[in-house]
Please model this.
Amino acid sequence: MTRIFTRADTSVLGRWWWTVDRWTLAALAVLIAIGMMLTVAASPSVAEHIGTDPFHFVRRQMLFLPLTVAIVLGLSLMSPLVIRRGAVFVYLGALVLMGATLIAGSEVKGATRWIAFGGFTLQASELMKPAFAVVTAWMLAAHREDPTFPGQRIAAGLLALTAALLLAQPDFGMTVVVTAVWCGQLFLAGMSLLWIAALGLLSLGGMVVCYYTIGHVQYRVDHFLDPTPASSYQITKALRAFQNGQFFGRGPGEGRIKEVLPDAHTDFIFAVAGEEYGLILCLLLLVLFAFIVLRGFSLVMRDENLFSLVAVGGLLSEFGIQAFVNMASSLRMIPTKGMTLPFVSYGGSSLLGLALAMGAVLALTRRHPGGSLT
Model:
């Protein structure tokens, strides 16, 4: 590629190649490749259990991959102005779809989060997450530039509206993630630590209220602290998968726990990686996630643009928290939460939401050849 695009090339693709962070692009490509490999390994047994073609989930995932790659690359070409304006439209559209989901969506495991479109189901909240982080960053940065602009109040209103729709589904886990990211963005935007601490205490109080008022939240927490054979079935099998895999793994296709794990292709795909490829692949995944997050922060911290700093900080925090929640759930470090492993787990909505997030990160961390950020 460096031979195709010289530094003297002033075309759109030429400028893009020399300004985008190619290390992050490479890490994302490796993640997507590992995800497809693990989907092929984990999903056939799940498909057979529900009485469909063994490669049902594989084909559906492959349908979303070209669109995912196109979104990441397409957004990485955009300017910060286009990113933040586009985020407004995505956020508003996602809110409308989330409202429609509550009315016409399908209920799965006691939650109404998916709405059907032409043979596919869409989880609109996955598209909302990255857009919310960018729009909130815009409001907070605008307030810092002009203190008379009610950016903080608008950001608080957006959080209240978003949290209300998420809790109505209900999706307590995503509500916690979105709220935590929002508080982190306030810190990056310059809010005092005193206010951040107060918001943290308020959030803890909200979690206590949710525990006593939302039945499935209480169930998850209680059975995490005092598990029963029925409630800890998947966790027990996942831990057995890690034990079976040890350091080098049992080998590609040789895992057996995936045959009895209902969510082997989604929530517990990390356990499939541990059994078939061992600690080596698990550590590689951990390194890739950490690299993408730390690399993004190191690039944007050099930027003098507050919007870019707050937006990228929010997007990378969402990415990192989602990866942590999935892996920690599989290892029984936290209560189980239906959250996909970024770019690895099966899920079209998750792929599209992550593509929006990482495409925006690549766009907001691009550099000019001279070294300054775009």
Notes: Strands lie at 106-108, 111-117, 120-122.
